[in-house]
Amino acid sequence: MKLKKFFSIILMLLLGFVLVACNGTDTPDPGNGGTDPGNGDVDPGNGDGDTDPDPDPGNGNTEPPTEIVIMHGAPNEVDPRRDDFSGREKAARIALHEEVEKELNVKIKYEAYPADAPWGPQRSAKIIDWHTIGQPRADIYWLTTIWLKEIVDSGAIVPLDQWYGQYGDPYDVVYESGKTVSNYKGQHWGANPEPFRGENGLFINLELLEEIGVTNPLTYWDEGTWTWDTFTSWVAEANNALGANQHVLGGVPSRYIQNMIPLNNGRIIDNVLGQVAFNNNRAHEVYNLFLELKDFFEPGGEYDSGSAAWKAGNVLVHPGSLWLVRASNRWGDADFIKNDNIGVVPFPLPKGASKDDYIQPLAGEAIYTVATNTANPAKEELAFEVWTRVQLWDSPEVLEDAYEDRLISIFGDMDYVNVMKEISGNVYLELNEQLGISAFGSTSWQVNVNSGIAEGSVRARMEEILPVYRTALEEYLAE
Fold first, then answer.
1. All residues at 6 or more sequence positions from 131 whose CB lies less than 8 Å from its CB, including other chains
2. Radius of gyration for the alpha carbons in the chain, expressed in angstroms and rounded
3. Residue 270 and residue 252: Cα distance in Å, rounded?
């Protein structure tokens, strides 16, 4: 009897050793990235294929991964793991994400801005509200520099100067581009994976152009004769050839003027001299040109979305930026654009100006910023490191090729691809839209220029809003 009891104790000890050796786990990760390992137990969401909620991710760290949220207006453009990803180098980007997630023990998540934070002032207000209540909704916010001042002043994002160049960007031109557009109060608040280019132009409805039989203005540009005088004559000629309910000039005058003042060696806001410059002679020469042309504009022109007349093909030219052309919520649903009948010409130059001096304003550019994390300040640098390390940081040559590919996807004719490449490199920062004055408010430069043109006089309106802008600029430039 004692012998039987002895063997029972030995058997129990042996079973205990087996259980300790197995550590109570199921079949280990088969290396399939987190699928069912074959025993009916599915990965709990940590991506290592093991049912243990706190597994070793393969880098010696047994802590659960830190989630890094990147909030964007169009996640399909930047999240390579989405089926509808519209960017380039999908496989390389996925590999980068997986490598960074493993090395830094993070989980990268892209989220769209919620419905109550749509593009515009509401989005800026939401970012500030989330910060105010101590609950930022993301670690990285993609936002436009139009809102930079108010968001920085609220404390909702942090400066990036201490981290620039530590984790990526072997080509200084990229970071310098982001610094240029995000400079405020002596610090820099944004980054971008590619340099900013000048993407503005005067877009042409080629279908209507062919129908009325007037010269393509790109011909004048190529010949070096696309001047204000030629532009004025061309507008008059086109107007005579158009039918009823058709118009030469689309949109609003301010969109032309903001691109033509710098071509006349002027500025709206001269941030180099720290002066408001929209009321000097250089600017008024451009205003006067459009006072002469005001009767050739379509009635009810839109700022950038494009009126019903433009989309219906009844307007010959429209100022704008490249992204408007194919965007489904802007011009992309117009039949003439779907049929590749869209062209572009640079804005006309004043007499004596050279094509080599063509310059474009950067304003309202989209940048990536780091959210303030009061509860965990160390996560701010981690978020920036993660974002930086998942970028391709292509060479300037590769980026130039990618830009050409993008232009080819917009235009059906290489002539327009080439002219946009010709004028895209020379840019400067225009502070007009970054001073905290709403572009559609009663004291804005845009609203008063357009009203002044319609009324037949701009000078009085410019003098009226001048003190508002001087005060705003003084505050903006204050350290």
1. 154, 155, 156, 371, 372
2. 29
3. 23
Beta bridge partners of 247: 315
DSSP secondary structure code for residue 297 in this structure: B
Which H or E run includes 234?
helix 228-241
How many residues make up the chain in this entry? Answer: 479
What structural domains and CATH numbers belong to the chain?
66-196+365-393 (3.40.190.10), 200-361+414-426+433-477 (3.40.190.10)
Condensed to tens digits (0 to 9), the pLDDT of residues 2-13 reads 333 333 433 343
Tens-place pLDDT, residues 406-462: 999 999 999 999 999 999 999 999 999 999 998 889 999 999 999 999 999 999 999
Distance (Å, rounded) from C-alpha 302 to C-alpha 309? 10
What the block records as the tokens of 21 is: 């050796």
Q: Which helix (H) or strand (E) holds 258?
A: helix 253-260
What are 246's two structure tokens?
């058709």
Q: Is the distance from CB of 371 to CB of 159 less than 8 angstroms?
A: no
Instruction: State pTM to two decimals.
Output: 0.83
Q: What is the pLDDT of residues 34-80, one digit of tens each?
A: 333 333 333 333 333 333 334 444 556 679 999 999 999 999 999 99
What are the pLDDT digits (tens) for 379-391? 999 999 999 999 9
- Taking each continuous run of H as one helix and of E as one strand, the counts in the chain are 18, 15
Task: Give the ranges where 265-321 is alpha helix by DSSP (H).
Answer: 281-293, 308-311
Work out the end-to-end distance of the chain between its first and last CA atoms, rounded to an integer number of angstroms.
92
Q: Cβ(72)–Cβ(112) under 8 Å? A: yes
